[in-house]
Design goal:
- One of its GO terms (molecular function) is oxidoreductase activity.
- It is found in: Secreted.
- The protein is mostly beta strands and about 575 residues long.
- The chain has six helices and 44 strands.
- It has a domain of about 110 residues: Sandwich (Immunoglobulin-like), CATH 2.60.40.
- The protein is globular.
- The structure holds 2-acetamido-2-deoxy-beta-D-glucopyranose (NAG) (8 copies).
- The site of one 2-acetamido-2-deoxy-beta-D-glucopyranose (NAG) has 5 residues, from strand 40.
- The site of one 2-acetamido-2-deoxy-beta-D-glucopyranose has 7 residues, from loops.
Length: about 575
C-alpha cells in the first residue's frame, strides 16, 4: 500500500477531532465516591477546606447530622423533621468530610467571602430567601465551627442573585428572581432600602427570565460590570447610575441562567486592561424547546470584551465544541479552564442532554485561533447543579450534578451525583517536576497591605531558572454555583525581575495599590515558572488602620489580623 493510503486509512480510523485531542492532557481522580450531598454550591476557605452545600428541601441526603441532631422546620416543603445534613466541609489534606447544620433553605443562593475570610451566604428559597448565613473557617473538627444564620437579614427575597465584594469590604447583592434591585451587606445606612436596577427589567424576558445569576465583575475603575441575558452595563452602584452601555453580544443569544453560559474576568495585568470572557450558553428559544422535549444544541462561541475601553467591542471566538452550564475556573498560571456542562438543552430540572466530558483550557495571551486546548475526559457527567473550584495545590475540585427535584439515583438519565473528583491540569504532570517552583517566603497567612513591595523567595528543583518566564499571580477564591464563580479574580503582580542569593531566588513585585484592583481579603499567591505554578500560599490583603479608619464596613484591618483564628489553632 503506498503511504498516502495508509495516512488516509489512519484518518478514517481516528477521526481528525480525536487526532487533535491529546490523549493525556490533565488527569482525573475520584476523591470520594460520596460526600453525602450533591455539590450545588462550593467555596474554598483560607483554612484549606472546601465548604459545600445543596438545598435543604429535597428530603433526606446521604449523610446524617452529627450526634443524632435533627432539623425541625415545619416550613420545609419535603421533610419537616430532617436528621440529614445538606452542607459539608471537605478537607483535601485528609480527604474527609464533616456534616454541617443549615437551618433554612439555601437553594440557588449566592455568596461572597468577607475580608476576614468568613463566607457571607445570602438568600435562597422559601424560609431562607431573606436569610444571611455566616461560616467562619476554623481548624480542627470543633463542632462549634458551623453555620450561623441571621434571618431575616435581607430587605428583599434573593433567589438566583449574584454577590460581589466591594473595594471597601462590603458586599453587594444584585438581582434574584423577580427582584430588579440590589442591596448591600452590611447595609450602608440603617434606613437604606434596596435600590432599583431597571437594567434587570430591560433584560428580563418574563417567560424565560434569561437574566438570572447575572455575571458581575468589579472593574478597575471601581464600577461594576453587570452582564445579563445578552448585554452588559457599567454601573456606578454608589450613585445608582449606568455609566456605560456595552454593545449586545454578537448573535444576541442569552448567556445567563437558564441559558447558562459562564464568564470570567481575565487575568488583570498592567498591559491588557480589564477583559471579560463569556463562553457558551443556550440559544434563544432553547429553554422553551427543552420544556417541550427538544434539546437544542448549545452555543459554541465565546465573546471577549475590554470593559475599561472607551469604545468597547466584542471579539468572538469559537470553542472546540458547544457547551451549556460550563464552569470557568481561573488557573494559577492565568489559563482559563472550562469544565462541566452539556452539549444540548438548558439549565433547569431535566432540561439538558449530552454531557460534555472533556474540559477545555483557554490561553488568553495566545494568538486568536490557538487559544483553546481540549483536555482529558472525565467519565462523570456534570450536568445541572455542578461546580468546580481551584485548590491551593493547583488541582480543581469538581462535584455536583443533580438535574432532579429530589435525590434520584435510579431510573433517571443522569442520576444525582454525590461524588467529588479532582482534575489535575497538565501543569501538575510529574514530567514538569524539575521546573516547578516552590515558595519559601513569605510564609502562608502573611499579611500584605496596599502598594507594598513584596519579595517572594522560591526555589526550582533543577536550579535552572528561565528569568523571563517567572511571574507572581494572586487569585481570589470564588464562590461557585450555577456555572458562575462569583468574585473570581486573578492579578498578575509582576513578571521577571528575578535575583539569586544563596540557593534560592527572589522575585520582586508590588501588591495592588487599590481596592478596585483587589478588594481586601484572602488571596492565594503563586509563583509561576515557565507556565508551571507553585503550590499557593495564603496572603491576607488588609488595610492599614489609617485607611480603615474611614470606613467601618471594612473588616480587614492589618492590626487585628485574625488573632482570633490563630488562637484557635
Ligand atoms: C505527562 O507527561 C508525559 C510526558 O510529556 C506524557 O507522556 C503523559 O501523557 C502526561 N500525562 C498526563 C496525565 O498529562
Ligand atoms: C444514597 O442513599 C440511597 C438511599 O439509602 C441509596 O440508594 C444510594 O445508593 C446512596 N447513594 C450513594 C451515592 O451513596
Ligand atoms: C414558618 O413560616 C411562617 C410563615 O412564613 C413563619 O411565621 C414561621 O416563623 C416559620 N417557622 C419557622 C420555624 O421557620
Ligand atoms: C468576620 O466578620 C463577620 C462579620 O462581622 C463576623 O461575624 C465573624 O465572626 C468574623 N470572623 C472572624 C473569623 O473573625
Ligand atoms: C425522584 O424521586 C422522587 C422521590 O423519591 C420521586 O417522587 C420522583 O418521581 C423521582 N423523579 C424522577 C425523575 O424519577
Ligand atoms: C536573571 O537575570 C539577571 C540579569 O539579566 C541576572 O543577574 C540573574 O542572575 C538572572 N537570574 C537567574 C536566576 O538566572
Ligand atoms: C539553602 O541554603 C541554606 C543555608 O544557606 C540551607 O540551610 C538550606 O538547606 C539550603 N536549601 C536547599 C534546598 O539547598
Ligand atoms: C524590580 O525590583 C526592583 C527592586 O529590586 C524594583 O525597584 C523594581 O520596581 C522592580 N521592577 C518591576 C518591574 O517590578
Amino acid at each position: 500500500m503506498p503511504p498516502p493510503l495508509i495516512i488516509l486509512l489512519f484518518f478514517l480510523l481516528f477521526p481528525h477531532e480525536r487526532a487533535l485531542t491529546h490523549a493525556a492532557n490533565g488527569e482525573w481522580e475520584l476523591l470520594q465516591p460520596s460526600i453525602g450531598i450533591s455539590a450545588m454550591h462550593m467555596q474554598l476557605l483560607f483554612s484549606d477546606r472546601a465548604l459545600i452545600f445543596d438545598r435543604t428541601d429535597f428530603g433526606p441526603s446521604n449523610i446524617s447530622l452529627p450526634s443524632g441532631r435533627c432539623r425541625r422546620d415545619p416550613n420545609d416543603t419535603a421533610l419537616p423533621i430532617d436528621c440529614t445534613a445538606h452542607s459539608v466541609e471537605y478537607t483535601p489534606a485528609s480527604n474527609s468530610v464533616r456534616p454541617l447544620m443549615l437551618l433554612t433553605d439555601t437553594w440557588c443562593s449566592s455568596a461572597a467571602l468577607l475580608p476576614n475570610g468568613t463566607l457571607l451566604q445570602t438568600g435562597g428559597y422559601n424560609d431562607g430567601d431573606r436569610a444571611a448565613r455566616l461560616y467562619s473557617p476554623c481548624s480542627g473538627d470543633a463542632a462549634s465551627c458551623d453555620w450561623q444564620e441571621i434571618n431575616p437579614a435581607l430587605a428583599k427575597r434573593r433567589w438566583y442573585a449574584t454577590n460581589h465584594i466591594l473595594p471597601d469590604g462590603g458586599v453587594i447583592i444584585v438581582g434574584g428572581r423577580r427582584q430588579f434591585s440590589y442591596e448591600f451587606y452590611p447595609r450602608r445606612t440603617t434606613a437604606e432600602m434596596p435600590r432599583s436596577l431597571p437594567f434587570l427589567i430591560q433584560t428580563n424576558d418574563p417567560k424565560v427570565e434569561n437574566n438570572l445569576y447575572p455575571f458581575v465583575f468589579l472593574n478597575v475603575d471601581g464600577n461594576l460590570f453587570i452582564f445579563a441575558n445578552n448585554r452588559a452595563i457599567l454601573f456606578d452602584y454608589v450613585r445608582g447610575v449606568v455609566v456605560k452601555n456595552y454593545p449586545t453580544i454578537p448573535g444576541g443569544d442569552p448567556r445567563n441562567y437558564p441559558s447558562s453560559g459562564s464568564a470570567v474576568l481575565l487575568p488583570l495585568n498592567s498591559n491588557s486592561g480589564a477583559q471579560v470572557l463569556v463562553c457558551g450558553g443556550a440559544p434563544t428559544g432553547a429553554y422553551v424547546s427543552a420544556n417541550n422535549g427538544k434539546f437544542v444544541t448549545a452555543l459554541d462561541t465565546c465573546g471577549r470584551i475590554r470593559i475599561d475601553d472607551q469604545n468597547p467591542q466584542w471579539a468572538m471566538e469559537t470553542m472546540p465544541g458547544p457547551r451549556v452550564m460550563g464552569d470557568m475556573v481561573l488557573l494559577p498560571n492565568g489559563d482559563v479552564l472550562i469544565i462541566n456542562g452539556a452539549r444540548s438543552g438548558t439549565a433547569g430540572w431535566e432540561l439538558s442532554r449530552d454531557p460534555v466530558l472533556t474540559p477545555v483550557t483557554y490561553r488568553p495571551d495566545n494568538p486568536v485561533g490557538s487559544r483553546f486546548e481540549v483536555q482529558s475526559s472525565s467519565s462523570t457527567p456534570r450536568m445541572y447543579h455542578s461546580t468546580a473550584v481551584l485548590l491551593r495545590d493547583g488541582r480543581v475540585l469538581v462535584g455536583g450534578s443533580n438535574p432532579h427535584t429530589y435525590y434520584n439515583f435510579t431510573g433517571v438519565l443522569f442520576p444525582t451525583d454525590l461524588t467529588l473528583e479532582a482534575f489535575s491540569p497538565s501543569y501538575l504532570n510529574s514530567s514538569y517536576a524539575s521546573m516547578r517552583p516552590q515558595i519559601i517566603s513569605p510564609v502562608s497567612q502573611s499579611k500584605v497591605s496596599y502598594k507594598q513591595p513584596l519579595v517572594v523567595g522560591f526555589t526550582v528543583p533543577s536550579g535552572q531558572i528561565d528569568n523571563g518566564s517567572v511571574m507572581v499571580t494572586m487569585v481570589a477564591p470564588p464562590f461557585a454555583t450555577h456555572s458562575f464563580s462569583m468574585n473570581q479574580r486573578l492579578l498578575v503582580l509582576g513578571q521577571g525581575n528575578v535575583t539569586v542569593s544563596g540557593n534560592s531566588s527572589q522575585i520582586r513585585v508590588v501588591s495592588p495599590d487599590s481596592g478596585n484592583l483587589a478588594p481586601p481579603g484572602y488571596y492565594l499567591l503563586f509563583v509561576v515558572h515557565r507556565n508551571i505554578p507553585s503550590e499557593g500560599i495564603w496572603l491576607f490583603r488588609c488595610l492599614t488602620s489609617f485607611l480603615a479608619r474611614f470606613d467601618f464596613r471594612v473588616l480587614a484591618r492589618c492590626d487585628s489580623h485574625l488573632a482570633a483564628w490563630f488562637s484557635r489553632l
